[in-house]
């Protein structure tokens, strides 16, 4: 169930039937199933988890852990490898802090030129403190990851290779398998930023052989303030927690503490319980619609968008439909992205404008900004037609 | 989120005066001689502006700006750089955000306020 048929799951579209919501890379809308799952926690069995001996707490704990199970199934992991976080940013920050503790000036971390600030700034800060160096895999002129560059950069001193599975600015799908294989050949750990992939591409962490994968709930039809960090069990077992407090300990004296098992030791304090339950419902919602069908729908629409919008603007992203998702960025000569987005908004077309939290990438591409339309499961050809109409009008106003 | 509004609302913002200043901004130059230079950044879109100011006998004698920006930021830069000419530092520092928005004479939405104020705040930064 995709396109118009999928819209019925989202109350927002009943209220705004003509809205062309094309900012799904920033955040997706929330289906009733997710809103309902969260509401039922608040109205039906609200209690803290892992603490009360009473029935209500047991019920809440069960639903929270069921959600963990749903996320594990969603990416083919085990439940103890799923850490609930507040989002991709939280997961990546934790990794950049914890993985690099013993890094020295001989070591390096390899990222790519297209990383979101969330997978760049934490590494910059850690590099400043620990003295390791950062390297960036170049892009090809076709906006794809240059594997030849990756081959020369990833060496025996590379400790971590981190990359976005899908670029939030270009829509590029990274050659994850190849990057991970290169990293593992050199003994480096791999971190996959799957923020822009989770709702759009089937994700199988076993098949990928990724060491860590981070993603956000709010970009996969789930609640804000929710997310997942997947880590392979053998890595999680040796990693230090980031926060200390309740829930994450097994034994405490005035002098010492011992950590609980995984993943509890990484979830200190009361977590975002309703959000985790909502995220579990979101994973089931996506699975129910079938990710392969979602991918097929979005691919068809992306092709349509590239063809129609491409006649009016310069597309910034791969042309090969099999190597990209429905994140479609573009520029118009003589028109500023802010103005284009403003005029589109007044046409009922919601897009994002600016650097998309990839300022270095913009500079690398010689751009100051771009306008970005990004698709979701409920996007339709009509949305694209309205985008094209709005773009034509914006050109008339701005480029006269 | 405004849905399917008539083109007249678009025209209320993108008035001919604004578009004219966008296409042909005033004072978009590097003055021959200047005393201070300041860079300003709009973090929400990454736009950068640079202003260069020359003083003579306690008054701003010349000003130029450089950089890229949207129609609102370019129009605002044009208007404010003209407005501050011949004024003292105290007078310039007392210009308020509301003054700037009134000068533009268009409805400025919450998300565009930074665009409208970037040049003014950069000029005021340069004086402090
Ligand atoms: C590729 C990518 N990585 C990381 C993030 C950060 O996600 P969040 O803001 O949900 O933590 C985003 C979203 O903005 C993204 O698109």
TrEMBL record, chain B:
Organism whose genome encodes this protein: Candidatus Magasanikbacteria bacterium GW2011_GWA2_56_11
Molecular function terms from GO: iron ion binding; iron-sulfur cluster binding
NIF system FeS cluster assembly NifU N-terminal domain: residues covered: 14-127
Protein's recorded name: SUF system FeS assembly protein, NifU family
Record-linked Pfam families: NifU_N
Database matches in InterPro entries: NIF_FeS_clus_asmbl_NifU_N
GO biological process entries: iron-sulfur cluster assembly
């Amino acid at each position: 169930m995709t396109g118009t048929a999928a819209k019925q799951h989202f109350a927002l579209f009943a209220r705004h039937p003509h809205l062309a919501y094309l900012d799904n890379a920033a955040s997706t809308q929330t289906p009733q199933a997710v809103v309902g799952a969260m509401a039922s926690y608040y109205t039906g069995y609200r209690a803290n988890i892992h603490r009360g001996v009473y029935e209500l707490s047991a019920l809440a704990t069960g639903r929270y852990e069921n959600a963990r199970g749903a996320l594990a199934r969603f990416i083919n992991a085990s439940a103890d490898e799923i850490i609930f976080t507040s989002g991709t940013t939280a997961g990546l920050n934790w990794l950049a802090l914890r993985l690099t503790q013993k890094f020295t000036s001989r070591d390096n971390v390899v990222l790519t030129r297209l990383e979101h600030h969330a997978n760049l700034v934490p590494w910059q800060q850690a590099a400043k403190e620990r003295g390791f160096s950062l390297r960036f895999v170049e892009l090809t002129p076709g906006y794809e990851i240059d594997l030849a560059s990756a081959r020369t950069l990833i060496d025996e001193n590379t400790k971590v290779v981190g990359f976005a599975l899908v670029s939030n600015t270009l829509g590029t799908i990274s050659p994850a398998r190849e990057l991970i294989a290169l990293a593992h050949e050199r003994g480096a750990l791999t971190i996959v930023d799957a923020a822009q992939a989770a709702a759009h591409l089937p994700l199988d962490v076993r098949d990928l052989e990724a060491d860590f994968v981070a993603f956000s709930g709010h970009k996969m039809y789930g609640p804000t303030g929710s997310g997942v960090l997947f880590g392979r069990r053998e890595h999680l077992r040796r990693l230090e927690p980031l926060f200390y407090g309740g829930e994450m300990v097994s034994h405490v004296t005035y002098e010492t503490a011992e950590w609980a098992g995984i993943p509890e030791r990484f979830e200190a304090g009361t977590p975002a319980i309703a959000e985790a339950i909502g995220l579990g419902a979101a994973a089931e919602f996506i699975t129910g619609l079938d990710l392969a069908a979602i991918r097929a729908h979005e691919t068809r629409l992306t092709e349509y968008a590239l063809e129609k919008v491409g006649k009016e603007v310069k597309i910034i992203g791969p042309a090969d439909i099999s190597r990209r998702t429905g994140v479609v960025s573009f520029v118009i000569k003589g028109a500023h992205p802010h103005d284009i987005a403003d005029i589109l908004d007044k046409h009922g077309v919601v897009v994002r404008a600016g650097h998309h939290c990839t300022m270095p990438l913009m500079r690398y591409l010689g751009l100051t900004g771009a306008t970005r339309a990004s698709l979701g499961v409920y996007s339709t050809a009509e949305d694209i037609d309205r985008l094209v109409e709005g773009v034509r009008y914006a050109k008339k106003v701005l480029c006269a | 989120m405004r849905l399917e509004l008539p083109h007249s609302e678009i025209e209320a913002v993108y008035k001919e005066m604004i578009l004219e200043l966008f296409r042909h901004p005033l004072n978009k130059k590097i003055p021959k001689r200047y005393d201070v230079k300041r860079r300003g950044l709009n973090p929400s879109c990454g736009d950068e502006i640079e202003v260069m100011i020359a003083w003579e006998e306690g008054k701003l004698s010349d000003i130029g700006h450089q950089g890229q920006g949207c129609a609102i930021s370019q129009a605002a830069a044009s208007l404010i750089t003209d407005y501050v000419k011949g004024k003292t530092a105290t007078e310039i520092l007392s210009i308020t955000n509301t003054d700037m928005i009134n000068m533009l004479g268009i409805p400025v939405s919450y998300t565009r306020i930074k665009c409208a104020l970037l040049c003014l705040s950069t000029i005021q930064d340069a004086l402090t």
